[in-house]
Structures are given as structure tokens and as C-alpha cells.
Please model this.
Amino acid sequence: MFTGIVRELGRVVAFDGSHLRVAAPETAPQVAIGDSVAIAGVCLTVVANGGGELSFDAVPETMSRTSLGRLGPGDGVNVEPALRAGDPMGGHVMQGHVDGVGNVRSVGAEGDGRRIWFDVPAGLLRYCVEKGSIAVDGVSLTVASLDGDSFSVALIPHTLTVTTLGELQPGREVNLEVDVLAKYVERLLNRD
Model:
């Protein structure tokens, strides 16, 4: 389980489409082989840990449902180790199970921050509510507004600095995870 509070901005060292190596010197000493770490919002299992770098395997299922395939050496990634009992819950409950890949529609200045609109895959927008939670590339955010097929977020300067969201440009793919509680409520209400 994760909260969407990014603990470190890591850098991709190497990625061949199935084996991902990330420089994460702050996170690496905290985790062991077999632990879960969210990379760009995707829950991955640590398979090697050494020299401040973490390695992960990405199976075809992961690649088909996420935007990890766009990553290359030097790219920044949001890194969050799994929540431990007693850790503060600063964001919202997240699983690292990506629901879909969205696209940045537009990025605009808004005061000292930015407003970013994301186009959402069909079927996901029903889980989004204004002032509700959503995860974008592993960052816990608040939905600022909605239209027919997209949502926007209003980002503060701190978030733009300590996550990859400050680098977003129109057309960029992002991993989206909607609020898991909304999915469970829907499932319970539609049991038949």
C-alpha cells in the first residue's frame, strides 16, 4: 500500500523493456529484495539492491497497462517505498495498480503553480469526482475540475519541484490510479 507522497525523485539507469534499474539512493537503504516500491505509480518488486540502485522486473502485463515503456536512461521517476505500520498517511490509499494510461491535454500557468488537464481512458472518469483523490504517476492529487472526458489538477510549486509532474508537457503519457474505494463501492452496488 502507498499514499502517493513521493519520497524521492529517482533516475532510470537502464531499462530494456523487462528489467528496470533506478538510481534511488535515499530509498535503497530502506528496502530489501522482495519489498514493494512504487515507480511512477506502478507497484514493482525489488529484485536487486546495491550501490543506491534498485532493480525490478516488468512483465508483459505491467508493460501493457502502464506507461513504463516510455522510460529511458536519465528519465526521472517518482519513487515511494511501501507504507509501513505507523507511517503518516499524507496522501490517500493507493495500491500501485494502474487503472489506465492518460495523456496530458494541456499545461498552463496558474499563479505560482500550474493547472494540468489529463485526457482519461473511457470508463475511468466515472471514478473521478471534483475534490476527490487521484494518482498521476504515483502522486496523490486532488481533482480540481472535470469535463466530458478529462480532469484537471492544480499543482503547487513544491509538487512541481519534487516530482516528475513539473516536467509534463502536452501529449505525455501518465499512469492513472483512481480511488480504490470508489471501485469497491461500485462493485458492491452492482453485485448481480
User: Anything to note?
Assistant: The mean pLDDT is 94. The radius of gyration is 16 Å. The CA atoms of residues 28 and 52 lie 5 Å apart.
